[in-house]
From TrEMBL:
Domain of life: Bacteria
Keywords: DNA-binding, Transcription, Transcription regulation
Similarity field: Belongs to the LysR transcriptional regulatory family.
PROSITE patterns (alphabetical): HTH_LYSR
Cellular component annotations (GO), alphabetically ordered: cytosol
One Pfam family per UniProt: HTH_1
Record-given protein name: LysR family transcriptional regulator
UniProt lineage: Bacteria, Bacillati, Bacillota, Bacilli, Lactobacillales
TM stretches of this protein: none
Domain HTH lysR-type: 1-60
SUPFAM superfamilies according to UniProt: Periplasmic binding protein-like II, Winged helix' DNA-binding domain
One of the record's GO molecular function terms: DNA binding
């Protein structure tokens, strides 16, 4: 039994047809048949049943159970291949969600420049939800990720080092602009501009809406924070945004939420638990954590 056998098996679970699997891998059908026999002999269990009357291939419960484990093996092999190809590289594949990259990371760059590390960073930008999946798949070395709770994922090592409140953002022309704070339940009649599904904001916003039992009036959804704030400034609607994304010099009004049970915007440094941090990556993590402790 070898890795190719596992790949053949997993594809057969999906296709349920020996000929299709053989064509997929450009091998003969007997090659697939022998691979399956080797796996069944190894595990001492029948994994497929041929229904001759209906010309169908049925997967047994044992087959489905084994496939769950084989998927993990194949995923880990793919990740290992990516990491081994990069292990001697001086480049760090570093994930930066848009809000963290725009409003938090710039304060760290002077320290990175002094250590000569900026030239080593190859940054990737996407929402925190997608960033976590890229990290799990081994497509990134490290990432700064936003979440509402500390990240508890068995494949990921994550250290929370910053926590920010969410705010309600309104235009100076909005009728709520004179209020320093507000309860989320009092926003039922407001029009909202929201960030899309890839942002942790979307999850936090929906949680508060469910918590207070109302369907929000969302007039626009965007992946661009600058567009969101420009529309709020024009008084088209209000927004739910972490305080880090609203500097004091912007012409927007931030209202604190008074709700006792409200989510927070946590920033964590994350990487795979089985990822060996090289010397340059260790320097990066040390600078990021020490900078956070100084603030």
């Amino acid at each position: 039994m070898n890795i190719k056998d596992l790949k053949y098996f997993h594809q057969l679970i999906k296709d349920k047809n020996f000929s299709k699997v053989a064509a997929h891998f450009s091998v003969s059908q007997p090659t697939i048949t022998l691979a399956i026999k080797r796996i069944e002999k190894k595990f001492g269990s029948r994994l497929f049943i041929r229904d001759q009357s209906h010309h169908e291939l049925q997967v047994t419960a044992s087959g489905y159970q084994l496939d769950e484990h084989i998927q993990q093996v194949l995923n880990e092999m793919a990740t290992a291949q990516k990491e081994l190809q990069r292990i001697n590289s001086t480049k760090i594949l570093f994930g930066l969600p848009p809000i963290i990259g725009t409003y938090y990371f710039p304060a760290v760059t002077p320290a990175l420049l002094r250590q000569g590390l900026m030239k080593n960073l190859e940054t990737f930008e996407t929402g925190s939800k997608d960033m976590l999946q890229l990290l799990i798949k081994g497509s990134l070395d490290l990432a700064l990720i936003a979440s509402m709770q500390p990240i508890e994922q068995h494949q990921i090592m994550a250290q929370v080092f910053k926590s920010y409140d969410f705010k309600i953002i309104v235009s100076p022309k909005h009728h709520l602009a004179q209020q320093p704070k507000i309860a989320f339940k009092d926003l039922k009649k407001e029009s909202f501009i929201v960030l899309n599904e890839g942002f942790i904001h979307n999850t936090a916003f929906k949680r508060l809406c469910r918590q207070h039992d109302f369907q929000p009036n969302v007039v626009y959804q965007t992946s661009d924070v600058h567009v969101l704030k420009a529309m709020v400034k024009e008084n088209i609607g209000i927004a739910f945004l972490t305080e880090i994304a609203v500097p004091a010099n912007e012409e927007l009004v931030s209202l604190a939420l008074v709700d006792p049970q409200q989510p927070h915007f946590l920033i964590s440094l994350a990487y795979r638990k089985n990822h060996h941090l090289g010397e340059i990556q260790q320097k990066l993590t040390k600078i990021l954590t020490s900078k956070a402790q100084q603030e």
